[in-house]
């Protein structure tokens, strides 16, 4: 399935590792590895993920428009935050390299290609946003540093979509 990987260890041995999130996507009946490493598009100034069933785009800096967008088959779904943009630049948070105790741990670690994290510091007065990208989707953390930031603690979602709350608090 799309939440497991198989590794050929040689001499007829295969190791199967099951993950708690998607690690593959299907294209023309073939499973391909998800690659959420971020690449800068010099033309648009936006970052985008490398390989998945949809492309995640992140604003290179906040100018009041969409911060995060998902694009699939020509359909775009993006969101922004209330208030005027302050020009906060996207800061890609580097991955911490763990120390592996075994080769199995090393093979199982997909954090460098499966996960990405981007921080927009002071995107609004007294507010940061941290965007987490992973195999199961995208999560934005809105960090309020002052009580004056409370009016900005929300997202402006696009019209034309039907939104349904999920049991985990997501949409």
Strand order of the largest sheet: 5-6-7-8-9
Estimate percent helicity.
under 10%
Helix and strand content put the structural class at mainly beta
Total count of strands? 13
Distance between the termini: 24 Å
Bin the strand percentage: 35-45%
Would you tell me the overall average pLDDT?
90
Q: In this structure, how is the largest beta sheet organized? A: 5 strands, antiparallel
Taking all Cα atoms into account, the compactness measure Rg is 18 Å
Number of helices: 2
Order of helices and strands: EEEEEEEEEEHHEEE
Low-confidence runs: none
- Taken from the alpha-carbon principal axes, the silhouette is globular
């Amino acid at each position: 399935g799309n939440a497991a990987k198989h590794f050929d260890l040689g001499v007829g041995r295969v190791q199967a590792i099951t993950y708690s999130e998607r690690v593959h996507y299907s294209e023309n009946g073939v499973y391909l590895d998800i690659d959420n490493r971020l690449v800068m598009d010099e033309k648009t100034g936006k970052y985008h993920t490398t390989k998945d069933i949809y492309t995640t785009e992140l604003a290179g800096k906040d100018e009041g428009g969409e911060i995060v967008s998902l694009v699939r088959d020509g359909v775009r779904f993006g969101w922004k935050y209330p208030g005027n943009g302050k020009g906060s630049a996207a800061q890609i948070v580097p991955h911490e390299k763990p120390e592996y105790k075994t080769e199995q741990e090393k093979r199982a670690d997909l954090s460098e290609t499966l996960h990405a994290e981007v921080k927009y510091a002071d995107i609004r007065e007294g507010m940061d946003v941290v965007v987490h990208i992973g195999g199961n989707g995208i999560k934005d953390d809105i960090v309020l540093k002052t009580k004056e930031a409370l009016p900005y603690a929300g997202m402006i979602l696009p019209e034309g979509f039907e939104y349904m709350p999920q049991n985990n608090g997501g949409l």
